[in-house]
Design a protein that fits this description.
Layout: E1 3-8, H1 16-29, E2 34-39, H2 41-44, H3 51-67, E3 75-79, H4 85-94, H5 99-103, H6 106-113, H7 120-135, E4 140-142, H8 148-165, E5 176-178, H9 213-221, H10 239-252, H11 256-263, H12 268-293, H13 297-325
Parallel strand pairs: 1-2, 2-3, 4-5
Helix pairs in contact: 3-12, 4-7, 4-13, 7-8, 9-12, 10-12
Bound molecules: adenosine-5'-triphosphate (ATP) and magnesium ion (MG).
Adenosine-5'-triphosphate is lined by residues 8-9, 11, 15, 17-18, 20-22, 143-144, 146-147, 184-186, 195-199.
């Protein structure tokens, strides 16, 4: 089976953007691929996280993975800091990556701007992501559009490493991004020029997967729109309405055309209220399962088991890398 790897940061409660852009796809891939899904808590600490909140959110995210349909019998589910090979491989990646290459990353530039003090970890972030991916020989990486540039960096790294150390063989697998055709970039509900992010300081800008129905309805009602007054899919001139169409379409499995036909002249009020109903309908059953799982021993057991499996694969790849670059001494 072809291999899949992806992860989400416990930097907040995942949003419907995370779900539509990446997490929903995780579930669909389980049957036909060898899937490994991580909760990347070491990525989260590239900016300050309150310790107690971080550990709670880590567990929360794991529970959501399973509540939305990941099956530990089919997928390896684990916490990044349980597998030391990630940080070890990231160091090797860092030593073969130019500072300039990292400084060019738009996520770095965006996030650095918002920090009073920029950590070296924030700059190094993509190297850890390269490590995550290569350790599992991952061929396909289901992610949102914003991760495309980091995937390109990963592909360049793999070429460089294989050329330098492979002696004509491919030591590492070159991954490809898997980005959904629509919904790969869900926008902020308050500012349709920026993407929806779970770490946004303005909580009205995103809907989290655990928001209560009345909060969801309120947030969609107060989402910014435009003065056109007709529902069209026009990302340039009506980005906010197009964003709501992307959300509605992804969660209902109805085509954008179909939705535009129905709502074109019904007014924004009716349109928004039906989008809100759809969001509530999608996440209510997930939330129910989430609450059953989050404090269970079963969840801990799944993560311990997942770490065991992940450690085996990751350690094997790390050894291969160390041997190739001469981090060995035994004859
Ligand atoms: P943060 O603000 O802390 O970076 P985030 O919302 O960007 O949080 P990540 O954990 O960085 O979430 O990303 C998890 C996955 O969700 C990635 O595959 C990313 O590409 C995807 N993703 C993030 N935001 C969006 C979005 N607005 N639309 C679609 N996919 C998204
Ligand atoms: Mg992000």
């Amino acid at each position: 089976k072809p291999t899949i790897f992806s992860g989400v940061q416990p930097s907040g409660i995942p949003t419907i953007g995370n779900y539509i852009g990446a997490m929903k796809g995780f579930v669909d891939l389980q049957d036909d691929y060898e899937t490994t899904y991580c909760i990347v808590n070491q990525h989260a600490i590239t900016v300050y996280q309150d310790p107690k909140t971080l550990s709670q959110t880590t567990r929360l995210l794991a529970a959501l993975y399973i509540a939305m349909g990941l099956d530990p019998q089919k997928s390896t589910i684990f916490i990044q800091s349980d597998v030391p090979a990630h940080a070890q491989a990231a160091w090797i990646v860092l030593c073969q990556t130019g500072v300039g290459e990292l400084e060019r990353m738009t996520q770095y530039k965006d996030k650095a701007q918002k920090q009073e003090v920029v950590s070296a970890g924030l700059l190094a972030y993509p190297a850890l992501m390269v490590a995550d991916i290569i350790l599992y020989d991952a061929q396909y990486i289901p992610v949102g559009e914003d991760q495309k540039q980091h995937l390109e960096l990963t592909r360049n790294f793999v070429d460089r490493f294989n050329n330098r150390y492979g002696n004509g063989k491919d030591l590492l697998v070159k991954p490809e991004p898997m980005i959904p055709k629509s919904g790969g970039r869900i926008l902020s509900l308050q500012d349709p020029t920026s993407k929806m992010s779970k770490s946004d300081a303005n909580t009205k800008a995103f809907i989290s997967m655990l928001d209560e129905p009345k909060t969801i309805i309120k947030k969609i009602k107060s989402a910014v729109t435009d003065s056109v007054g007709e529902v069209n899919y026009d990302k340039e001139n009506q980005p906010a309405i197009s964003n709501l169409l992307d959300i509605y379409s992804a969660l209902s499995n109805r085509s954008i055309d179909d939705l535009v036909n129905e709502y074109h002249s019904l007014g924004y009020g009716k349109f928004k209220s039906d989008v809100a109903d759809q969001v509530v309908a999608t996440f209510e059953p997930i939330q129910q399962k989430y609450h059953q799982l989050v404090n269970s021993q079963e969840l801990t057991d799944i993560l311990v088991e997942g770490a065991k499996t992940a450690n085996e694969t990751a350690t094997r790849t790390l050894s291969r890398m160390e041997k190739a670059i001469g981090l060995t001494y035994k004859p």
